[in-house]
Amino acid sequence: MNIILLGPPGAGKGTQAQRLEVERGMKQLSTGDMLRHAVANRTPAGRQAEDIMSQGKLVPDEIVTALIDEALDRPDTLGGVIFDGFPRTEAQAVALDALLDTRGMKLNHVIELVVDEQELADRVSGRYSCAECGAGYHDRNKQPKVAGVCDVCGSREFSRRADDSAELVVKRVAEYRAKTAPIIPYYENKGVLAHVDGMAGMDEVYTAISRVLDRA
Ligand code: AMP
């Protein structure tokens, strides 16, 4: 099964995708993670993306589409894919259809996590992750069980994303509203769109997503 998680920064896409990976054996494909990796490794794509990302803007469609194209050829996607942060423009949505078509893959569900935009800056600026394994945490909503130690891998190193500042979140949400929200009708017309209340607790959101995925 292949799905898209749609929603603005801070909607909970990454958190839910990580849990779907663990519990359903699906593969999270986060273009944000891929781009951060490319930036850290100074690849040509990373060098092009770095400045754009630091301004909270969208990286050109060709760059992210190429990253997804490459990722879909890896065997770890055979158990199904969760697209997280992709597509973000109509051109990307059209490109994704073509990438799936050529591989005989189907898009089963597009789940929009509906959130209150007022809350986003607060949610995003409180989040951090394990520098070793990437497990996600939050200052208020999700602290490690033992303070300062990652629940998953035991590392004591954590990091915060440079673009999670309150100032940049406003810009990223504006990009979402201008360029990504307009693709929602594209999926509504295909009959694959479902809405989930992203303001509910993490477990409830996961249950609501599961209900959509288990629908016949
Ligand atoms: P994310 O981790 O999904 O919040 O993405 C972080 C940043 O990476 C975004 O603010 C964009 O600059 C860039 N980015 C991630 N995914 C895409 C995409 N599908 N299209 C364009 N830019 C993207």
Describe the structure.
- By secondary structure, the protein is of the alpha/beta class.
- Helices cover 46% and strands 15% of the residues.
- The protein has a five-stranded parallel sheet.
- Helix 2 (31-40) packs across helix 3 and helix 4 (61-71) runs parallel beside helix 5 (90-102).
- The mean pLDDT is 95.
Strand elements, count: 8
Query: What form results from the Cα inertia axes?
Result: globular
| SSE arrangement, N to C | EHEHHHEHEHEEEHHEH
> What about the largest sheet?
5 strands, parallel
Low-pLDDT ranges:
none
Bound molecules: adenosine monophosphate
Name the strands of the widest sheet in spatial order.
2-3-1-4-8
Question: How are the elements arranged and paired?
Answer:
Elements: E1 2-6, H1 13-24, E2 27-30, H2 31-40, H3 44-54, H4 61-71, E3 81-84, H5 90-102, E4 109-114, H6 117-125, E5 127-130, E6 136-138, E7 158-159, H7 166-180, H8 184-190, E8 193-197, H9 202-213
Bound molecules: adenosine monophosphate.
Adenosine monophosphate (AMP) binds at residues 9, 31-32, 35, 52-53, 56-59, 64, 85-86, 88, 92, 163, 172.
Which properties best describe this structure?
216 residues, alpha/beta, three-stranded antiparallel β-sheet, 9 helices, 8 strands, globular, binds adenosine monophosphate
